[in-house]
Design a protein that fits this description.
Strand order of the largest sheet: 7-6-8-9-10-11
Number of strands: 11
Order of helices and strands: HEHEHHEHEHEHHHHHHHEEHHEEEHEH
Radius of gyration: 22 Å
CATH class of the largest domain: Mainly Alpha
Number of domains: 2
Distance between the termini: 23 Å
Shape: globular
Largest sheet: 6 strands, mixed
Strand content: 15-25%
Length: 376
């Protein structure tokens, strides 16, 4: 498998040795360990890697005594604590090291923001910078293909997603790897760290969410379908989002008449995982859900692109009660830009209510012929 350099690597490198603990979040198997080791290798500190899933490593790093910790770490100038959420009191440990040995660069990774963030939050206030590692981006796989080959691979990207190990695999192997990823690893953090017993509810919830990407989510409908209290459904959605399986896109409103103001849509961080959950891997042109799949793919790729540009707009969708809508909306520096995404367009007109109420906004259509500028 070819090693692809991640676009976020130089951004992280720019912050090394500037007095900040670097925290790298991302789903399991998304490439956090590979990236962390690449950073170590650049400084010839390959022995600075510590896997916190190993009991002996956890036991030593769990000591809140900086002298003992420094003796264990030696004279390294950069270290990686991989899956740091497994270390007891990791927040205080990182604070002690950062305060006592400010010349030591610490990188901590975690596949569960709800756990690692809780354990590091107050302790590292002002001392840490956080980054999210997504699955590979359309731009990053340009290292594997020339521009024509990459676009020709679009069908496969929409079927099998962009996880590093999967994006280069043959179809049958990709399917096996995705099914293993979605059935085991992605639930591990949610079930372990929150001590949840109902794995069946988590999976059924994900199935329902996978079937309605691009549509507004009704927690009441999910609650009724799963015969589970709505507070439990809301909690599970929150946990799945913090485990980097799904993310929410909230509705945009300035409280104008007919605007939907409190809804949200849910998308998957990787469309291959979404397809695995509902066991649909057909070619895109043969699918009834290709419009939903396309929208999910483009929005997720846009988030990856914005991260590499170090741009952080507010992200929304927009819809009125009489069904005028915009798939994706960005608000940045006081400016609104709307994007309508269709696999094949039947209309080329911006929603009248939006343009009338937000006259200084811009509006773009994204389709197969022009999508690359939007995401790369």
């Amino acid at each position: 498998m070819n090693l692809i350099k991640r676009k976020i690597q130089p951004i992280i490198e720019n912050w090394l040795f500037r007095g900040k603990v670097i925290i790298l979040y991302g789903a399991r198997q998304v490439g956090k360990t590979t990236l962390a080791k690449a950073l170590l290798s650049k400084y010839r500190q390959e022995d600075g890697y510590y896997n916190c899933e190993i009991q002996s490593v956890r036991a030593i790093l769990g000591q809140e005594e900086p002298v003992l910790l420094k003796k264990y770490l030696g004279n390294k100038k950069i270290v990686v604590f991989d899956e740091a959420q497994y270390v007891p009191n990791i927040g205080r440990v990182l604070k002690l090291l950062a305060d006592t040995y400010p010349e030591l660069q610490i990188i901590a990774t975690g596949s569960s923001s709800f756990d690692l963030a809780n354990r590091t939050g107050e302790a590292l206030t002002g001392r840490a910078l956080q980054f999210i590692l997504y699955p590979l981006s359309y731009s990053e796989v340009g290292e594997l293909y020339n521009p024509f080959e990459r676009k020709a691979q679009l069908n496969n990207f929409l079927r099998f997603g962009m996880y590093p190990e999967i994006v280069q695999a043959p179809d049958e192997e990709a399917r096996v790897l995705l099914d293993d990823l979605s059935s085991r690893y992605l639930y591990k953090d949610v079930l372990e760290f929150e001590n949840l017993k109902r794995a069946d509810i988590i999976f059924k919830l994900l199935q329902l969410l996978a079937l309605q990407i691009g549509s507004e989510v009704s927690v009441n409908e999910l609650s009724n379908s799963l015969q589970t209290h709505r507070r439990t459904i809301e909690r599970y959605i929150d946990l799945l989002e913090k485990a980097f399986v799904i993310f929410r896109l909230r509705s945009f409103s300035r409280n104008l008449r007919k605007e939907i103001s409190k809804g949200y849509k849910i998308f998957f961080y990787d469309v291959g995982v979404r397809n695995s959950i509902i066991q649909q891997y057909q070619d895109v042109e043969l699918r009834m859900d290709k419009g939903m799949l396309w929208e999910n793919f483009l929005i997720c790729e846009r988030l990856k692109f914005l991260q590499t540009q170090q741009i952080n707009p507010n992200n929304y969708f927009w819809r009125t009660h009489d069904q005028q809508e915009i798939d994706y909306l960005e608000e940045f520096n006081g400016k609104l830009t709307g994007y309508e995404m269709k696999w094949k367009f039947k209309r080329k007109k911006a929603p009248k209510a939006f343009m009338e109420n937000y006259p200084n906004s811009e509006f773009q259509f994204i389709e197969q012929d022009n999508f690359e500028w939007f995401i790369s």
